[in-house]
Amino acid sequence: MCLGIPGQIVEISNVEHKLAIVNVGGVRREVNIACIVDEEHSPVSCVGDWVLIHVGFAMSRIDEKEAKRTLELLTEMGEVQTEIQAMRQSNTS
Amino acid sequence: MKFVDEFRDPQKAQILLQEIEGLVKRIPVCRDRPIWIMEVCGGHTHTIFRYGLNKMLPKEVEFIHGPGCPVCVLPRGRVDDCIALAERDGVMMTTFGDAMRVTGSKKNLLQAKAEGADVRMVYSPLDALNLARMNPDKEVVFFGLGFETTMPSTALTLLQAKQEGINNFSIFCNHITIIPTIKAILDSPDLQLDGFLGPGHVSMVIGTEPYSFIARYYRKPITIAGFEPLDILQSVWMVLKQLAEGRCEVENQYTRIVPPDGNTQALQAIQTVFELREFFEWRGLGSIDHSGVRVREEFSAFDAERKFPLPNLKIADPTSCQCGEVLKGVIKPSQCKVFGTACTPQNPLGALMVSTEGACAAYYNYGWIPEEDLHPARSLV
Ligand code: SF4
């Protein structure tokens, strides 16, 4: 919950509600990008950006190298698996 | 120092450790006692134990594990209120996995679920909102908790619910705020500290300025730290350097994530939706003024506390628990009377055993229990 996980924005799913699809370690998931868009960064311009995601919200832009390093480290600590499992198991049905 | 090999950049770690050794010799207090550095954030606690950083550092440097795990500090009374809500007819309770395992005075949410309450584990408050959309005949409540890192997500979800008019959605707000908490720690008479490692992701939201009172009024150095083992070593080095040079400032080691002003959009969402509570109860620490937030009155239709009656009971921690002393750094987790016996990650008695970010769970899982703590009698022979 507090560490967050890096992912890459692959498409914008809802411009009005600022929702985007990210790829997190091969898993696609919709996240909210309201915290990383402003006048300089329109939602559409975010496609391809790497972001740090906390509980379904992109909270910070990070560079690709940093994202990969962080993913490696989190994998080592077992955090990636936990996070992806939580995404998958999220009981929305 | 064999564990250093595991690091991404072992050479850099070696150099840092050497420099730390050198700095320690220049700090006057070290002659009488260790230097106490509190890591406020549970994520740091986790890294420290996972990589055995506490064993690598010179013995003059001791970590005091702060109250930075939001799941761990949730008082039993709040958990009971949440369970009472979950057990109401027509309510669907949603929350993060960790929060389902924290026990109230009698049970936790998982047990309530086994007994028939509709409790769902979600990854994000957005998923909870989705559940509300799909189940218009249910009252969907999101059990929101966390420091400023997760506060914006709850706030933005509530704003979304309002915008879309999803009226069967509400929030049981247990969010807590970091600054008053650090202040309470600094004011606590039985706690002595020399410096802080500041929480990385909370600071990503609030920026570095809110910490300046620590340097200015309490004359303690603080370094905002990242979560990698090297980040933490470097941050410790930065704190020690300040101590050796007689400075106390707010420094930022985690500049790649933490901007000085924080995240404007996130802060705005928090500001719009939440206001400070007069006080909030913490497990193990008691009541801390202004340490929690509640939903503002204009959003009362989305506030579970206003929407539903709650038992709202204050329940004391079990007497055998020493979580409060651990949180304040007065004792180490393994010195708690029930550590590893009546209290284990499988059967947590205290909250610090529940989440992997809790100090007791970290001690237990990574086995960094000093021999003499495990077998106090042995050190006598
Ligand atoms: S061992 Fe259990 S009861 Fe003791 S301080 Fe840790 S969590 Fe609390």
How far do the termini of chain B sit from each other?
28 Å
Q: What is the N-to-C succession of helices and strands of chain B?
A: HEHHEHEHEHEHEHEHHEHEHEEEEHHHH
Element-by-element helix/strand order of chain A: EEEEEHH
* Number of beta-strand segments of chain B: 13
User: Which stretches of chain B are poorly predicted, pLDDT < 50 over at least 5 residues?
Assistant: 371-381
Describe this structure in words.
The complex is a heterodimer of chains A (93) and B (381). The longest helix of chain A has 13 residues, at 64-76. Chain A has a 5-stranded antiparallel sheet with strand order 3-2-1-4-5. Chain A has 93 residues and is of the alpha+beta class. Helix content of chain A is 26%, strand content 35%. With 381 residues, chain B is of the alpha/beta class. Chain B has helices at 10-26, 42-50, 53-56, 76-86, 109-114, 125-134, 151-164, 178-187, 200-206, 212-216, 229-244, 264-273, 304-307, 323-327, 359-366, 371-374; strands at 35-41, 61-68, 91-95, 118-121, 139-146, 169-175, 195-198, 222-224, 250-252, 274-276, 279-282, 286-289, 293-295. In chain B, the strands form 4 sheets. Chain B has a 5-stranded parallel sheet, sandwiched between helices. Chain B has a 4-stranded parallel sheet with strand order 4-3-5-6, with helices on both faces. In chain B, a hairpin with a 3-residue loop joins strand 11 (279-282) and strand 12 (286-289). Chains A and B meet through strand 3, strand 5, helix 1 and helix 2 of A and helix 2, helix 6, helix 7, helix 9 and helix 12 of B. Residues 321-323, 326, 333, 336, 338-339, 343, 349-350, 352-353, 360 of chain B line the site of iron/sulfur cluster (SF4).
